[in-house]
Amino acid sequence: MLKFQISKKPAAAAQVGQASRLPPGGKAAAPYGVRRVLAAFDGATSRAAPTSAAGANLSTPSGGAINRPVKSGDTSPHSINTPANIRAAAPLKFRPLKFGIFLGLSGFLLRSEGILEFGISAAATTTASSSAPAPAPASAPPAVPDQLDLETALRFALEHNFQILQARERIREQEGLIVEIKARVLPRAAVGAGYGITDKTLAADTTGAPGDRHDWQIGLTVSQLLYSGGGVSAALSAQKSTREAALLGLEAVINDALLAVRTRFYDVLLAREQIKVQEQNIQLLEEQRTIAKNRFDAGASSSFEVLRAEVAIANARPDLIRARNGRRTAIDRLRQSLGYANPGAAGPERAPGFIGDLAAISRVTCELQAALDAARSNRPEIKQLLVLEKAHESGVKAARAGRQPEVSLAGGYTYRKDNRSRPDGLGDPLDGWNIGVQANWPVFDGRATAGRVAQARSQHAQARLRTADTTLAIEVEVRQAWSSLQEAAELVDAARKVIEQAEEALRQADSRYAAGAATQLDVLTSRLSLTESRLNQLHANYSYNVAVAALRKATGQADPF
Question: N or C: fewer beta carbons within 10 Å in the chain?
């Protein structure tokens, strides 16, 4: 297992390696803040890190039970309904004994197919899903804080980053599709009613005698799928795998979002330190101008040295202006990564004070082979694609099920008018039940099923190729991140030594200039070298912190905030 070995704890809030905390919400501390995000979708899920390919959209074989309207006197082979006995007018009532017999027979057949337990489970899941409270609407973003540290920024992004919010909604979408597929194995019930009245002329019979003008009926129909050739179970398995892939997709989105927040927070700190360096540079140049003026007033130098000092100050001001603009731009990019949108806030130019510095932590040791092995095991993108391969494999089974017959149990209870009652009245009612088995076997469908199977197989093959392609891309990403970390570590060591040398060179140049042994150009060159060395050190520290975060993300490690 890949481990980042850190010999010294960072002191600043902007450094990596801080204690883990949950996102805001008043909850107790947890080892990894992202688990709180996943818990809303996966119950007791406890992954070490929450997964970037889109979830598969698998189609299922169309078709279902044959729900054919049943009419009195129908003797076709598709219905076992027989003419009901003529009864006297009676109020509408439900026959519990007859309907109980229907449900009991249905339950026996379902047990024989192994579907009853599945149907009950699906019904319980559907009920639980429908009774679950709807997600609360996103609250208005808070006002711009006075101070902001890296940990607070990461916690805020977990709750408000728009990419993370979209990934959450994709999980809810997959849950809805699972409910839709489960509905195919649950009983379906419908109540139908109708009433019609016919003109006297049209209702008259051939002898001219008045006919029956009124017609009405009320009926309850119930159907239950008994067998579908494994199509429903395969489609459900595919959709569950797709939901799992969506969870892994959320993990990948979170990792990307937190890396972006961390990098852009470092951008803000870098811009802030660059402003300080440029201000110090101008301050040193102004001191040099003062010395040149004093020497000119004393007659020890010419006005050329004063002019050259003023030119140096003027040339340094654009760098300070660009550094200030870079800070404003970095803050806006960080705001985008955080998902902070508050257009109604007063003072659009107001920005918080950012807490932290770019002091690099102690050396992080990591072997390249260990990093590659960790990435293959931990990266959510690879896990997601492997799960999608499984989903596409189930999709092939679901497509093949289109060649199998579908068998359904159907029944109902009807309450209608007796056609032999008096013509001008609503008539006496008749009521009765019917139950039967319906089957549909597509003997020849124009090779539509063969086409769906071919598509499903191709999608499965494409999924395998995407897995191989993504695995290779991740390996390249790990190698680049590892190489960047080695480069940044060497730059940090080199910059630290150069700073010491540049400060000593400036000290000697000032002493020699005061003694008349050095020129003003020597002093200005030494000050410029010191400024350049300080900027190089800032960039080295920045690159090191970003490289550590990038390698952690590349190997699938959780953000340690």
Answer: N
Count of C-beta atoms within a 10 Å radius of residue 343:
6
CA angle 413, 415, 420 (to 5 degrees): 135
Please list the residues that pair with 218 across neighbouring strands.
Answer: 193, 415
Strand partners, 227: 407
With b meaning 16 or more CB within 10 Å and e meaning fewer, what string describes 116-148?
A: bebbeebeeebeeeeeeeeeeeeeebeebeeeb
pTM: 0.67
When computed from its CA atoms, the radius of gyration of the chain, rounded to whole angstroms, is 38
Q: What is the pLDDT of residue 216?
A: 83
Pairwise CA distance, residues 376 & 118, whole Å: 36
Is the CB of residue 171 less than 8 Å from the CB of residue 41?
Answer: yes
Taking residues 171-175, report their average pLDDT.
Answer: 89
CA 274 to chain centre: 36
Nearest one of 228, 186, 184, 245 to 58, comparing CA atoms: 245
Please, are residues 431 and 87 in contact by the beta-carbon 8 Å criterion? yes
Dist CA 99 CA 450 (whole Å): 41
Query: Whole-angstrom Cα distance, residue 261 to residue 263?
Result: 6
Residues 276-296: pLDDT tens digits?
A: 889 988 988 888 888 888 888
**Three-state DSSP class for 205?**
coil
**193: closest CA among 437, 412, 409?**
412
